[in-house]
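Course assignment 3, question 2. Fill in each field.
Student: A.L.
Task: Predict the tertiary structure for the chain below.
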Amino acid sequence: MNGFAWGAFGVNLAAAAGAALAVMLGTFLIALRKGVHRIVDVAWGLGFAAVAVVSYAMSNGHGEGTLRVLATVLTAVWGLRLAVHIGRRGRGHGEDPRYEAMLAKAPGNRGLYALRKVYLLQGALVWLISLPVQAAYYLAGSPGGWAWAGTALWAVGAGFEAVGDAQLARFRRDPANKGRIMDRGLWSWTRHPNYFGDFCVWWGLFLVVCADPAVAAVTLVSPVVMSLLLIKGSGKALLERHMEGRPGYAGYRARTSGFFPLPPGTVRRG
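Answer field:
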């Protein structure tokens, strides 16, 4: 595919960085006032939505109309749903134990430490992971097979994530399940349906730009980084360290796939 607007894309990179930074700095100020840094998790989804909206505005006169709308809708729907879900889940709770433990070891000013290690880092990750979204606004030509395949994969991921989150929330609302391990519905197919959903969403958004090999090569880093975060970083690996030792978790782990969905009862140690 020819006609990718590399120059305009370069300008967009700066605008998207500004959007991600603005969301994170605004969230940091709110967190300082509230004394709770867990709200940065809400800003994660909002940051991607902000990048999409800013990129749509910046790309006026470039790219292809349908593809620009598609990139905006897919990214904003995913980001806003995630932000609302996390906001509701955390309402009325105190600090997230992850941030509590991290800030307890902070040298010097805890606020500045959180700004560097949490907010600015997450802002940089939003910018990096959103590269395929930003690039989609500057592709020439109508959406083709790659774009619709990516949309289909995005739909699988968004559905998996939303259903998994809803099933877990419903499970936790039942007092009879207090202290029990969620092993029903999608959680019987994979120990992390929400993380697997994220994985599909971002590989799907990457596929949208694969019609242009050069753009695909430049933006491949984005889904790779997201996959590493979900599987090896702050997603699956961190959560499972936290879950170790809980009654029933060893059995659940032995009979349930660690990431990619498999039929219930399949023994997986991943």
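Instructor remarks: The radius of gyration is 19 Å. Residues 1-143 form one domain.
Grade: pending
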